[in-house]
Design brief:
22-stranded antiparallel beta barrel, mainly beta, disordered N terminus, 5 helices, five-stranded mixed beta sheet
């Protein structure tokens, strides 16, 4: 029996079945369009009027209608996210103008970028400039910012500096994930099953099981428990050792892209009286994944007359030069990772291939050394306690205590081909504790709040570079530890000083102390997956830096930081809000923990200063036609001092301080133009520049560049139509997202960019009139676009760049039962 042919036949049959099912559902539903239409919004309103659902947010740490808050906010209810099929926090970028993902590790790690404010350093001793909060608890680990979402009440995405109320490290904005709370009056829950098939050569499966249940234990005590399981089969075929011409055998030949996740969250609500409530939340997350999912694109460094690396370009099928020097000459390679290009062999062994002869195979098929099925993991757990006490009718005291613990290991084939060249690994063991005390009050026309905040983090964040071609094999390991203690006080007041006018003033002062120890070492690697964490681990050979003479670096900082907000709001009618203001945001300084190798890093670059942003923003929020149309517009200008910019060169990088400016605007629209028809749309423009940014640490060549992961244009459109059908409601959904060209590195080299892409999706679902049972079918990435999510430029050591992509087309069937 021909197994390969049999698999191909089965694949085509599966594809035909899904396509036929989709076509059948589409034609079946189309015949019913003449039936009576009904919308979710209308169903909730007894008078039969059609309008946009009101969303209450806590963007200013008090409950307000999102349309009454003078901040650019994108808010989604949990039900809205479920109806759109949004399961992961990473999918929020498809429905939020100005939001992007900064990705690392071959897609195994991502964190958020808002309006060009991003941090591409993948080491966890560096915090993101965009804060993430889980149920009022701060997430200080940027490597754990993205996750599968479950049983949420809502998600709030706030754009622009939020440092007055939310502290340092929210210079770009923040995202809040608010869980669905227990009820003290009724039991409820749901069970949801999803099965998806990816349109890649093996048609792998993606399955999700999610459920929640909650209700009263007594009239004063309630509970809610939610759980989610996720499994993604590998979707990139690994034909290793195909095209292996030299070097040792590596890995176990596993296909790439596999992922498994299990998460559980429990909430207890205790409300002994109308004036006091206490919420205790605990969660556990376990996630495993294959080695980083990179495919290779062959490339060549471009070297100027001074020997400086000034660009990287993708090469054609006939290219034989290792790099491109002055006059088109071959300038050699830097396979030893010294930062200096030297003469290499006479050309590439195979025209158009990497330095070792690999030419690639085809999309979703590769030949990769270091292929392991369960090479990485992310384990996280946390406990959060929130107490709220209504002291009087005018003053409320809130206490939020939060603890989180993270263990992470992610590894990849750094040359993304069959030759065992380099294997980067990043991992950490970390924990954090935060405590906030906050008073909210009202006195006449003044609403005010004041409080104090404390943060402690303890992080051991290590990185290693395995050298596969060395004999014996070694690892260049950077062992970094950091402790942070941060103390803040803050206050903000909203004064309605005249009819329709409001003045908002706020400020925050933070004193932050950090201690860091960075040690560069050499270890023997007894096995490929060996990952040392301390110099007492087996295989230790020597300490080699990062200071001259092979000495480790010990850093201390004690920064006084201040943030402020001044804004004026004007409401000419009850349906319109105009606002204009200025925010000063801050992000604390820190310390670099670079991998050994490359050009020597001056001691002065082992630390970097705090960054400061002055953000000027104005906007309008409006509702029209009895709240059947909402149109929100914002325009902003950012002026950065000492923007923390990540320079990636060779196989590692450092954070530098540079100045930056950004201009942009956003438009968001919601509309219910007809009964049953709901439309949302958005567009953002971001023109961001970072000045005097170098191509390497020598700073011989500096340029004005665009921030990484910052397309100038992002837009989205979603249309849903619901109508009665067979004792239930049939809903059609079509969506489109677009992003323009963007770079994946601040060096802005040609090979680390991607062209603009459109992405389409469609779906259909049926729900019975009792709203208990729901069946759905949807297609993501309908046109099967190959959209890059990250590119790492390692052309100096392998003649290639590492590329990861969004998922291919995915067909998903779902069923959900509510009770």
């Amino acid at each position: 029996m021909n197994v390969t042919k049999d698999k191909a036949v089965r694949s085509k049959i599966s594809y035909f079945r899904y396509s036929t099912a989709l076509a059948g559902l589409l034609s079946f539903g189309n015949n019913a369009l003449a039936q009576t239409a009904v919308s979710n919004e209308q169903a909730a309103e007894p008078n039969g009027t059609v309008g946009i659902e009101e969303i209450i947010v806590t963007a200013q740490k008090k409950s307000e209608n999102v349309q009454k808050v003078g901040i650019a906010i994108q808010a989604f209810t949990g039900d809205d996210l479920a109806e759109r099929g949004i399961q992961s926090s990473t999918q929020l970028v498809d429905v939020t103008p100005g939001l992007a993902l900064s990705s690392a590790g071959g897609g195994t790690e991502s964190h958020f970028s808002i309006r060009g404010v991003t941090q591409s350093d993948y080491n966890d001793i560096v915090e993101s400039p965009n804060a993430v909060y889980l149920d009022d608890g701060y997430m200080p680990f940027q490597g754990a910012q993205t996750f599968m979402m479950m049983d949420l009440e809502r998600v709030e995405i706030q754009k622009g500096p939020q440092g007055t109320l939310f502290g340092r490290n929210a210079t770009g904005g923040l995202i809040q994930f608010i869980s669905r709370k227990p009820s003290l009056t009724e039991y409820s829950g749901y069970l949801s099953l999803e099965a998806g098939m990816l349109d890649s050569p093996t048609n792998p499966l993606r399955t999700t099981v999610e459920g929640a249940v909650g209700g009263p234990i007594s009239d004063k005590l309630g509970f809610r428990i939610a759980a989610k399981g996720f499994k993604l089969s590998p979707f990139v075929i690994n034909r290793y050792p195909e095209q292996l011409f030299e070097g040792p055998l590596s890995g176990d030949g596993a296909d790439l892209g596999a992922e498994r996740m299990l998460a559980v969250r429990g909430i207890l609500l205790f409300k002994p009286s109308e004036s006091f409530s206490s919420e205790l939340t605990g969660f556990v997350l376990r996630r495993t994944m294959s080695a980083g999912l990179f495919e290779q694109e062959q490339a060549a460094p471009v070297i100027d007359r001074n020997g400086t690396w000034v660009d990287t370009v993708v090469i054609g099928p006939n290219e034989t030069r290792l790099s491109i020097g002055p006059g088109g000459a071959d300038a050699g390679w830097d396979v030893q990772n010294t930062g200096i290009f030297i003469p290499g062999p006479p050309g590439r062994p195979v025209p158009g291939g990497d330095y070792f002869g690999f030419t690639g195979i085809k999309p979703w098929v590769t030949s990769s050394s270091y292929g392991f099925d369960k090479a990485g993991h992310v384990d996280m757990e946390g406990v959060n306690l929130k107490n709220t006490w209504d002291i009087s009718g005018a003053i409320t005291l809130t206490s939020v205590s939060d603890y989180k613990k993270l263990s992470k290991l992610q590894t990849a084939n750094g040359a993304s081909g069959p030759t065992a060249v380099i294997f980067p690994t990043i991992g950490n063991e970390a924990w954090s504790f935060t405590q906030e005390l906050r008073l909210n009050g009202k006195a006449g026309n003044l609403q005010w709040q004041a409080g104090a905040f404390y943060l402690h983090t303890d992080i051991d964040a290590n990185s290693a570079l395995g050298i596969g071609l060395a004999n014996p094999q070694i690892s260049l390991s950077t062992l970094a530890s950091q402790k942070t203690n941060s103390y803040s006080i803050f206050a903000q007041g909203d004064w309605s000083f005249a009819d329709k006018w409001k003045l908002i003033l706020g400020g925050r002062y933070t004193q932050e102390k950090k201690r860091s120890l960075v040690t560069q070492t050499i270890f023997l690697r007894p096995t490929e997956l060996y990952y040392p964490r301390t110099i007492t681990d087996p295989g230790y050979i020597a300490t080699i830096g990062p200071l001259p003479g092979g000495l480790p670096f010990a850093g201390r900082s004690d920064d006084g930081l201040w943030a402020m907000k001044a804004q004026i709001n004007y409401s000419p009618t009850n349906d319109m809000l105009l606002y204009a203001g200025v925010n000063r945001g801050v992000k604390a300084g820190g310390f670099n923990s670079p991998l050994a190798g490359g050009l020597p890093i001056p001691a002065s670059l082992l630390s970097y200063k705090p960054e400061v942003i002055w953000a000027f923003e104005g906007g309008v929020k409006s509702s029209w036609f009895d709240n059947r149309l909402q149109a929100n517009l914002s325009i902003f200008h950012y002026d950065y001092r000492d923007y923390q910019a990540f320079l990636f060169a060779g196989v590692g990088g450092v954070v530098l301080n540079r100045d930056s400016k950004t201009n942009g605007g956003e438009l968001s629209i919601k509309a219910v133009p007809a009964r049953g028809l709901n439309i949302t749309a958005g567009v953002s423009y971001t023109d961001a520049k970072v000045y005097n940014f170098p191509t390497d640490v020598t700073e011989q060549v500096v340029r004005t560049v665009r921030p990484s992961f910052t397309p100038k244009w992002r837009s989205n459109l979603d249309a849903r139509y619901s109508h009665s059908f067979h004792n239930g409601t049939l809903t059609w959904d079509a969506n489109w997202t677009y992003r323009s060209e963007m770079f994946f590195s601040l060096r802005n080299f040609a090979a680390v960019s991607d062209v603009g892409h459109s992405k389409f999706g469609a779906g259909i679902s049926w729900e019975d009139h009792s709203e208990q049972l729901n069946f759905g079918l949807r297609v993501e990435n309908l046109t099967n676009e190959r959209i890059k999510t990250s590119v790492f430029d390692v052309a100096s050591v392998c003649g290639c760049v590492d590329v990861s992509y969004e998922l291919p087309r995915v067909y998903t069937l779902s069923v959900r039962y509510n009770f």
